[in-house]
Each structure stands twice: as C-alpha cells, then as structure tokens.
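user: Please review this fold.
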Amino acid sequence: MDNALTDQRLARVFELLDGRLARNGAPRAGIVVCGGAAMIATGLVSRTTTDVDIVALVDDALLLVAPVPLPAHLIRAATEVAETLGLPADWLNNGPSRDEGGLFQMGLPEGFQERLHARVYGSHLTVYFADRIDQIHFKLYAAVDRGGYHISDLEALRPTDDELTRSCTLGAHARCIGRICRVVETRTSGTGTWKSR
C-alpha cells in the first residue's frame, strides 16, 4: 500500500486515530504537529509526507507539555492505524522533541501556542497545527542543521524578507540564529521573497 500522506489521506488517518482512541476507551488526545504533515494539512505546501511529527502534547488544562514519552494509549492507537492502512510503524512520532536537543526542550518560539490552528477530528482527538511563521522558523533551523528537503520546503513556502527576519527573532534556538541569518542572506537579495538557487 502507498505510504504517501496527502491532505485528504492525513484527514482520514486522523479520523481513524480518533476512532481507535475512542474504541479503546482512551482519554482524549491533543497533539501539536509541525513539519510536512502540518504544512500539508494547513495548505501551506502541496506535497506528500510519510509521517506526522509531534512537537508537543496538549494536556487537559490546554497547556503544552513535552511529548516524551508518547502516551501508551496514543502509541497503541497509532499502531492499530498503521496496521490497518499499511503505514510505517513510526508514522506518528515525537522525533522533533524526542530528546534534550529537541524543539520543545530547547524552547518553542514566543507566541507559538497562541498561533496554533486546532482541528477536531472526533470525540477523542484534536490536532493543533503549527502556524506558517513557526514552520518557517523550524525549517530554517532544520535547514541549517540538516539541509536537504528542509531547504526545498522553505523554497515552497516562499517566505518574505519580513517573515524570515521575524522567524530569526522568535526567541528559540538562539545559538543558531547567526547561522540561520547567514542562510537567509544567501537566499534573499532584497527582493522581499525567498529565492531558489
């Protein structure tokens, strides 16, 4: 079976995850998603992904908490969805915030929670998608750290000079701001938009 997650397939996956959580008698889950899945679900880019990256969880008091470890009931439901749809075992993962060098652990951008876009997929699952400015911030950070498709995602997002400048000053990942700004300088030339090489 094709593992590619499109906008429509992501919605179906989240609906199935909600159904599995409900069927298993699990508590409600709130997950904060960044990366490709969030950009696809919010219409920022037109591409596919193979996974859903959880950067944080939302607790009962609507506070963001570290997604380490992922709750057993969420892992169980995600495993059942993977088996049903033929997805990779780690299609739902906490990769961006898995360890002490993770995005959550290093500090999410100032105002991150207030900018989240919430979607309710049923009685047991709400997914909070990262906002465009935060996606640009994370992709800049990842482009400096790993390059590759993160640069392609930035090109697809086509951030303006103002968005690039703002994303460099959101307060998180300060140790990388100098390197990030050098990447920005090589990718823009005062045109007000992101330039492809």
